[in-house]
Task: structure prediction
Amino acid sequence: MAEKGNTPTPTSTATRTLKTTSFGRQECSVSLEKILYNNKEWAAQMRQRDPDFFSRLANIQTPEWLWIGCADSRVPANELLGLGPGTVFVQRNVGNLCTHKDMNCMACVEYAVAVLKVKHIIVTGHYGCGAVQAALTLPCKTPGLVNLWINDIRDTRNHHQELLKKLKDEPSKQWDMLVELNVIRQVFNVCTCPIVQAAWDAGQPLSVHGLVYDVKDGVLKEITEPITSMDDLQHYLEAPQEHEAVAQLSRSLSVHLSFENSN
Ligand SMILES: [Zn+2]
Result:
């Protein structure tokens, strides 16, 4: 907490707006004035803890982590990792996707790996993900653009339908399983994207991780082992896997890689 006297006080406008809790025409639990006030208070606290904090960050950012996560408001990268500003480069989208055709995500990965030289890329899915749930239903039940966006998850669903059908009487387990399968698929997408491949070829230290966050208890779970090279990926895919979903994906990706290697 900032010392008394250093903490900015809300303006009279902010106080008035807090009472009405309205934002535009929409009722809102937090007003913009309150958010701006919170921001000033946070900045004052940061300066008090570390007077050079902002001047240091203003000149350079040296994050070691790239976070690829869902846009879901319950899964904020820095907070749940316990890391402050300047430490995590963040890419978030609906369903934590990292497809090679997504220019936004690929540009972000390129900048993070080639310029910032991050050491780790973490793909984080989360249980209770609405995008994954939508991918379990027929396309006509999802709004148009979202429906297009989650096609990669639906492909994963179709690819692993035998595994998912075993859980048809346990919808929440089926949902959880597709969340994990989607993370594994996106980890593979990251590992096989040209930017990461080039970095590994150049000997740049770079690990790729797959995690799932549980919104019910706030805990992150490791789904895939750290992958640090193409050899690592192949060894990982060839090794016996405890996780049935990983084992199944491993088998299919091994076929993919063996085709590439023999071609
Ligand atoms: Zn989500």
In short: Confidence is low (pLDDT under 50) at residues 1-23.
